[in-house]
Design goal:
384 residues, six-stranded mixed β-sheet, alpha+beta
Length: 384
Amino acid sequence: MDARLANTWRLTVNEKKFIESALLSGIRVDGRNPYEFRKLSIKFGREDGSSEVQLGHTHVMGFVTGQLVQPYRDRPNEGSLSIFTEFSPMADPSFESGRPGESAVELGRIIDRGLRESRAVDTESLCVLAGKLVWAIRIDLHILDNGGNLVDAANIAALASLLTFRRPECSLGGENGQEVIIHPPEEREPLPLIVHHLPVAVTFGFFGSESILVIDPTHHEEAVMTGRMTATLNANGDVCAIQKPGGEGVLQSAIMQCLRIASRTASDITKKIKDTVEAYNTERALRKIKRHPTSIALDGSANVKVEQEGFVGNKGANELPKKHMGSSRLVSEESTSQSNDCDGGTKSSGLGGNSRRNDGTTNFVGEPASWNINTQEEATRLDR
């Protein structure tokens, strides 16, 4: 059953007339302008290559997986890219489970045409062993909620998943150098796909003979519109693909107007995708950082806490910044002079080298070279 036909049956005559009269007045039911896109939200899962896109009430999830297969005979040095769609009855009662319907096949072809014919993904970089093994990339798109304009939402989900997908690194080994070795992520960092540009699909809806044009039609607007066109462009304004499935004819001037609007919209969506992917990659890198505790730490009173009975070697002393050594020396001299005035029971050496308190913490004064002196033996020798 066609989704648009099912939507038409659910709408009453009064609802259809209300939508049409509002569009004639330049007003849309959801309050948007005719050329305004709905709110776009992009999220990523914990696994690489998974994304979740929400465009208004439309909800789509995308997953990218890779597998080593034999290449096609006519293209032995190139990998493959395939797209599969799943329309769940939970997203729309008009969708049937099992065999893909007409809408699912059309959706997959539009996205596949924009990615494949524009050579957005470098398939030659997916070759591992020419003529024997290449990477086959598969994109699975799951429709979770149908709020209208499934093509644009699914296309954005496919692009976001491709940008975050990582494939294992492979190398050749063995006696004859023809054995493929797949390295696990713990051994070598997985590699991202080489994506030259992002072909963004922008869908337009046409209403009646008055040539009313809107962008990003909703679920109810799709039931009333008399024609639809999807233009796939990148951020540079290059036209990657155009799809006009049936309906009333469109004038050439209307098509050129759609391409100008789609160029601006594609640039904004591309920026949105790249910013979101960059934030995800930053978070992904931070999760892999291993932090080790430092062996030397400075507290607020410029006391240096060390192990091994308050002894610091040459290596530990040289690792301290000079500004910290200078501040430690100044503060320690002030504390040493105050302790001498109060007769606190501490003895200072003539060199001003160090002073020891009852709490077992050592205050270091002087140049770094004097920190290697054994404090107990030096104090005993000076007292004699």
